TrEMBL record:
Disordered, as annotated region: 231-270
Domain of life: Eukaryota
Species annotation: Trichuris muris
A GO molecular function held by the record: GTPase activity
Name of this chain's protein: Large subunit GTPase 1 homolog
SUPFAM superfamilies per the UniProt record, alphabetical: P-loop containing nucleoside triphosphate hydrolases
Compositionally biased region (Basic and acidic residues): 231-240
Amino acid sequence: MAKKKSNSSVGYSLVKASRRRRVRSTKVGTAVSTAPTTAGQMRSITEETDLEQFFAKAEMRGRDFAAEKLDPKVILNSVSFPQEIAAPSVPCFDYLPNKLRMPRKPDWRLAGNAEAFLQLEQKAFVEWRKDLEDLQQKGGYILTPFEKNLDIWRQLWRVIERSDVVVELLDSRNPLMFRVPDLEAAVKETCPNKVVFLLLSKADLLTSKQRQFWADYLTDRGDHFAFWSNADDRTQKETEAQDDEMESPIAESDTASSVSGKGNADAAEAVEERTLQATTTLQAGELLSILKGLRPDVDTSQRPIVIGMVGYPNVGKSSTINKILGAKRAAVSATPGKTKHLQTLIVDHDVTLCDAPGLVFPALHFGRHHMLLAGSSNGITVLS
């Protein structure tokens, strides 16, 4: 019996190819639908709608929801009038030091296993967010947008734990706006031997007199600090030379009128030298020498000293790391918050840098428009 001839027409081949494409598209669609959940774990979240906030809290508490079919209710009057907001009974800033805090990592010894510790972290994070909500609703305060993704905060916790010296980068044009006192307290709580160093970036945008003002302020507080610029070395020197030319006549006249005699001249020269050292923008080698000198107890022959880089988005952490390394290692972007994961970078045998993602900390001193002008927000507003 002759073998049946198979159907090998062009039309049949096209139909089979179309079916294969539909199967592949279905599989790809399934993979893509789950991708945002995975990628969103490290997405910075500073603002949420009411619905997103509700489900985020429910997920952290481990609650499930099921749809129920209920009898419809007719609402005759859909207009609601806001109730009069009573003035806060608590005087301003009385209990803020205990409430306006960054989330803390729970003690791992309180959990028996990894799953229990994960639940402990989520519970502590939910309680932290509830305290901030109470601060706004009961205290009558208005907080800035802040980071609401627990995974981003976990990266900061790890950087603090690993670091011997924690460098807090501040925009030198407004250092107090970007300084986080509770971050410095959290570093000391982790280990009293850890040192917090304030690095005032973008110092090339300040005049010598402005740098002197901030140097005096930080010196009086007993802080470890230095001025830093990511600009080209030639441009930086030209800017400093122009500042010196503009301010030198005033300085010379003040010195001539206030200093008399050889002893006074020597004292004035010593003061001027200390002032110059405090306000000069450092080079990469000078900065590393200062940071290594802050922890003489670390034996670099046994292990390298770990320097953590923390701060708000867009204060120049990635650019600072690239200048220290002399090569582009950390991603730099015009969009605030480019770094989303902890990065460990080896400088040499003695020094290792540990870069944390830029975080927006809860604060009361400024609003969304201030953050936009300072560059720590991208201006995208989530409407509720």
